[in-house]
Amino acid sequence: MNRSVFVPLTIRSYRQLFTAQVFSDLGNWFDFIAIEALIVYHWGLGAGALAAFAVTMGIPMDFNGSLDGCSG
């Protein structure tokens, strides 16, 4: 059982999927940061608005996770 965690990356289609997912997640984080910048700097709102934004982004994940059988 001495296999490396990088063995799946030797499969070309998996490597392409993994790379695409990395760029997709990076784009999601840039979007999240841009919305936070809008909330704070453009609209002039404070910490409460940032907290409300974080909660509204997390609610669907919590709700769908419980429906999918995931616990987190």
TrEMBL record:
**What are the entry keywords?**
Membrane, Transmembrane, Transmembrane helix
Q: Which domain of life is it from?
A: Bacteria
Does the entry feature the keyword Membrane, yes or no? yes
> What residue ranges are annotated as transmembrane?
32-55
This protein is called Uncharacterized protein
Species per Swiss-Prot/TrEMBL record: Marinithermofilum abyssi
